[in-house]
Amino acid sequence: MLRIVVSFIAFLLLAVPPANAHAVDVSAPQDLSRLDKLFEELKRERNEAAAKRIANFIREEWSRSGSATIDLMMQWSAKAMSEERYDVALDFLDQITVLAPEFAEGWNRRATLHYTMGSYAKSMADIEQVLRLEPRHFGALSGMAAIFKTYDMKEPALQAFQRVLDVYPMLRSAQEEVADLAEELAGEGI
Residues with Cβ < 8 Å from 18, sequence gap 6 or more? Predict the structure, then answer.
């Protein structure tokens, strides 16, 4: 029933164009030049706090869908997730991925929800979609690494965390994971 209600709301919101536009483009890309510049800054930054600020600017860019409808559904899904109403959040996120399949953050949010629910295969499928759309998505790469760790797949986890550091070198948690996994793998080789 909820899925029908969500679909109907999405239909209504999408059917009525904003007053200043002819149509709603649910797959509008973020400002790529700004995003590219932010990623360049993130890769060069050697101050952890400054890098964290840049990463937050990147997350803000990722969160811009280009559609008021999708943005609203993302807010609703976040609220449902915070209230641990995962079935409701999943309904919204399913709709987002259908309505805006090129919006990487919709897939990423759903991957996070699947991970939270312990559905690691579904999470990994969504992560793959995120990385197809945005290969530099350090959050999705971190999620992938966490899933590999869950299954005690240390080598792939290490590789995923190394990919995180290729994009976001000052991410302390990834640095620690790389060090720990490299040490564990070296110890297993003895």
Answer: 24, 68
d(CA 104, CA 58): 13
- Per-residue pLDDT tens over the stretch 7-31: 333 343 343 333 333 333 444 445 6
What is the tens place of the pLDDT at every residue in 78-127? 999 999 999 999 999 999 999 999 999 999 999 999 999 999 999 999 99
CA atoms within 13 A on the CB side of 144: 26
